[in-house]
Write a structure and sequence with these properties.
This protein has two domains: about 230 residues, 4-Layer Sandwich (Metallo-beta-lactamase, Chain A), CATH 3.60.15.10; about 200 residues, Rossmann fold (3-Layer(aba) Sandwich), CATH 3.40.50. The chain is about 35% helix and about 20% strand.
Length: about 550
Amino acid sequence: MNKNRQKELARTGRSLLKLHTLGAAHAVTGSLFLFELFAENKVTRFILDVGLTVENQMADFQKRLPSGINAADIDHVIISHAHVDHCGYLPKLIKDGFKGKVFVTPATRDLMAIILPDSGYLQEEAAKRHKARYDRDHKLALAGSTAAAPASGSAAFFDNGKVPAAKTSRSRSQSRSSQHKSASGRGESASPRFTPLYTQIDGQEAIKTLVAVDYHQRRRLTPELAFTFTDAGHILGSAVVNLEIGEGSQKKTFCFTGNVGRRDMPLLRDLEPVKSADYLMLEATYGNRLHQKRDRLAVLQTKISEAYARAKHRDPKFGCGVILIPSFAVGRGQTVLNDLRILMESGRLPKIPVFVDGKMTLKATEVYKSHAAIMDDDTRKLLEAGIDPYQTPRQTSCEDWRASEALRNPHSEPVIIVGSSGMAAGGRIVNHLAHWLPGKQNTVVFVGYQGTGTLGQAIVRTSAGERPDSVSQTPLTPQTVRISGKPVSLRAQIEFIPDYSAHADYEDQLAWLKKFTRQPKMTFIVHGDEEALVGLKGHVEQTLGWKNVVIPSKNQEFEL
């Protein structure tokens, strides 16, 4: 803001509120929204959500704040929930100079204490892989160049006029090295290819900045800024952030949904109604789609029963079949275990051995158990009665990699393995897939959205190229899939159950919006792909008759 504008605000006693959409704008991840409140010769800056940009990880190595604003200029951060695309950028913001406090619900705090150090560890491992790959390629290129160097006076090209392969390899390696040094300006050591965005220790340090605020507890940060969390029903601890900005006649209210959950899902309470807001920011992950209206337990029962029958056929080498369930460590894993428990205890499924393979899933499940008060009525009553909703009759926890490796030994009876990640983008489940996919007596059951470019999507995609989340029956699968750069034969049965999505579809969103007592002055649609954003905008305008529904662009600025 220029000085003349600041003087005018000081003279008139008026305030000015700016919003910068810095992430999850025309994108699904990287949630990051900056507010600037100019009032009485001072400016207060705060951020809603600090998420990693999963679609383009290199974006997080670049400056994400507006020109002229640095991390040290931010006074407060408020985070809606503990998914990494909403909270995972926090350690980097702190490394860059942020000194303030971060406000979350108690359950979000406990989940972030697991997620952020793990994210830092993954950042370190990715940097090591990039460095090792670069060193290997560079060494091979140099060796090839030496071997292919022509003798004095000989031609530098083969008879067909093409450059020898070794010379081409050297040229590419030199080009990468040159670009790498040029981009950093300081040589290899400064490149994000070889340096993690942040470390496991950085993730642990970030936890110290978290301040827990209960649902419905109004928290005032400054005389001009207060907020209240209400339950978003998306994952444990997820919140809709209800902001009060400014004072007196200049006070504005802003409702930020983060991610909101579906109606009548297990374990969690439903999304709470909000009566009104001057401004609304709405997520659109499923903005153009509807979830199938069917009995989730019945579908799971059918798929597992069929898989169990298939798995009883013993292979001479591999033994009985295995049922793999890739599942997100936070939310999805707990829901799947609860459903398996219900089906087995009621006799609708045999008491199949279940192995929970993933440290993150095990830790997150303990957090879920410790927050009985914010679960739905059925789950809370079970926990209060000393019953573990997430424990099937024959369940084993795999605490370390040795126990995980042992699961790839032949089995004398069919078993279920629940492991993260849900999109098979990493974790121990990847090793299980590489081992078990070639066996036709095995089954992989995917229980949610499979993101673009993930191993999960590669496995479940159909020959027609349908989106994985729109598949209503078992898709046709490719004959092979690449895992860790190697082709793996795909003979296992692949099942896809989209019923476990934790995001509201557009009917859920509209039902919630209809409870608003007045139309917001402006509604921002974020956190979705292009079709979803446009779809939700259309539904809000046509069904509710709302005006000023906006799909903001990245780095766009608004005066509210």
